[in-house]
Amino acid sequence: MLVGKVVGSIVSTRKNEKLIGCKFMVVEPLEKLGNSAEKIITIDNIGAGIGEIVLVATGSAARIGCD
Questions:
Q1: pLDDT tens across 37-64, in order?
Q2: pLDDT at residue 5 in the model
Q3: For residues 7 and 9, what is the distance between their CA atoms, to the nearest angstrom?
């Protein structure tokens, strides 16, 4: 898991049928917490908005959360 700030959204013209209706967001991990990644694309299923600080699940926890 990592903590980041939502900096934008992105649109997909084609996606897996399980992702239809999900919003894609661009998240920039917060450097002060030791995250080294630049920006990542996430799926927002709780309604976060641009400028909000979010907790991003990765790995198997993220797959379980999308079911």
A1: 688 999 888 889 999 999 988 877 666 6
A2: 94
A3: 7
Question: What is the residue-wise DSSP string for 46-59?
Answer: S---TT-EEEE--T
| pTM (global) more than 0.90 | no
Give ∠ CA 51-54-60 in degrees, rounded to 5: 145
The full length of the chain comes to 67
CB 49 within 8 A of CB 16: no
